[in-house]
Amino acid sequence: MALDYAVIAAYVLGMIGMGWWGMRRATSKSEYLVAGRRLGFGMYSGTMSAVVLGGASTIGGVGLGYKFGISGAWMVFAIGLGILLLSALFARRIVRLKVYTVSQMLDLRYGGNSSIVSGSVMWAYTLMLTVTSTIAYSTIFNVLFGLPKTVGVIIGGSIVVLYSVLGGMWSITLTDIVQFVIKTIGILFLLLPVSIISAGGFDGMRERLDDPAMFDVGNIGVSTIITFLLIYVFGLLIGQDIWQRVFTAKSPKVATWGGITSGLYCLVYAVAGALIGTAGKALYPDIANKDEAFAVMVENLLPTGVRGLVLAAALAAMMSTSSGALIACSTVAANDIWRRKTDVHSNRMFTLVLGVLAIGIAVVLNDVVAALTVAYNILVGGLLVAIIGGLVWKRGTRVGAMVSMAVGALTSITFMIVDGVLADSPIYYSLGASFVTYVVVSLATPATSPEVLANWERRVAGEASDEEELVNA
């Protein structure tokens, strides 16, 4: 295992080194939070792919493939569809707004201050998203060193917190590009073909499994597929972690086509994870915990050195999502909840404190898919209607948006408590309650003032000056 250790160590040191380099570039709030809004096509599409494909997409995606076969691709497939829709429909307008958070967009659209409600919901989402990838570190460190979950979470989480605190979005962007390359090689070009070949190809997998349902795209269940589409497609449309990456694009064109490229990559990654999991079921049918299938396959199928690279790829997937969610959580806390003038130093302090909090929560929780579901249920149920409504319906009002956000989030939490985290009811009932409330309250309250709408249209057209950007930050 010495060569594996060396590969992992080189990867970790590289991440920390890029954090240090990023610290030298992150000299202003804009540089720290959105990389100066200067990313071109290559860096933008790579970092967008890295942030959306994390521990739940890699460890969880393979685990779903292990349990449901090719149908396990639906979760990550829905993530790819979400990125495609966001990029094709809304990315151009999002870039032109020149804001830092989703809540600032809501304030521009509706007037007044709604950031306490929307910021609180978004903060809870980004914090739980950070936690999901932090949980997943433990599987890698257990395979490498036999370390218990708590120690693995602390080690992996500390690395991410360190480079995120140092350089902010610049460090995260640089590390994401490396992580994107590593996980593309490790997952798509190494583990995928080795897994299928080891299982005897597709014919061998069918013979070993002797279960046609494993090759049925609907095996996971129609209701689950619909829930995945609702949660992840809509969640990717409105998440702060995703919007914050859109803010980094240097132009609307980059945000659109770079995002579409990233979405297509996600669709390929979804199928790859499900096939790896299906091959794992054929080879190792008695794994008790489906989320351990990835680690078991890497440990048993790959030679030393290659194994280290694939484990580094898994770490890359987890760290990219975790760091992106962490900087998003910090940005929301500083700009929407704290709401006082901040500089680079204070943003670093927010990142540090919230990173430590995420590590603490990750030590307690276990199921990465369940944790991710909690995050997206709260996000989609609470904010989707108000955000999309603001983008497409001029009659929507601030009061309607705020009541809709509160009712949707509370409904989602209530049904998760009553019916369980993985039930379908939280997302259905919260979206329904949020939509009805938004429409009814908006129609019952005075329309948004023409002045607010005129300013909104001007910002959407990309006419905001640098001074206005700073004021709205």
Automatic annotation (TrEMBL):
This protein's record includes keyword Transmembrane helix: yes
Entry keyword set: Membrane, Transmembrane, Transmembrane helix, Transport
A Pfam family of this chain: SSF
Compartments, record wording: Membrane
Presence of keyword Lipid metabolism: no
Segments traversing the membrane: 6-23, 44-66, 72-95, 116-145, 151-173, 180-200, 220-243, 264-284, 304-328, 349-368, 374-393, 400-421, 427-449
Topology of this chain in the membrane: Multi-pass membrane protein
Family of this protein: Belongs to the sodium:solute symporter (SSF) (TC 2.A.21) family.
Name of the protein this chain belongs to: Solute:Na+ symporter, SSS family protein
Organism lineage: Bacteria, Bacillati, Actinomycetota, Actinomycetes, Pseudonocardiales
